[in-house]
Input
Amino acid sequence: IRFFGPNTYNTTDPAKLWCGNKALQNSLFYRDKYCANNFNDIGSAIVVLFELLIVNQWHIITDGYVLATGTKATRLFFISYHMISVIIILNIFTAFVLEAFLLEYSFSKGALETALATKINEMGLAYGSNPTKKKPKNEGTVKASILDDDELDSDCVDADHDNLQFVAEQLEEIVRNYTNYSNETDIRFHLKKGAMNVHTLLQKMFIHEL
Output
């Protein structure tokens, strides 16, 4: 199979007709102007293999080479190339890229990030928020509990309020053990994902298998 430039398909020279091969006479390969798709040099061979990789009319290219070589065994090369490069390698590569993209841009936090964020919040350092301005304390009014404004009266508890009284006591216990440092310091923590290298990416992909 040979390509003779722009005049390949309108030449009257018998030596240049049908891509230089009479077996391609009136074939789809010649009519669709695929004479440049040959293995005569490295550049042309790369183009042909790329077209086969993206499945661009690969059946027409295959039939053209079957006619040019005169043997149906030529199909073995094209079928093998399609099976290995397209069905196996290309799909694995595509799956790898998609998995890497999902891992890199996933909004879900890892176990370490979740633990750190929880600890920061427990310390009252307002993870993800701006420093709060200190307000002057009013010494005349002191609130002993966050439940002072509640209508619940601890001296008069009936059977219907037993559970509510228990919850109130638990809330007061939590408030007493919680120290809010956000009003005492401007220090704030921000967790940011760093650049992920190939080793870390593969480790995350196959963490369950490891």
Confidence is low (pLDDT under 50) at residues 142-152, 157-161. The CA atoms of residues 33 and 66 lie 16 Å apart.
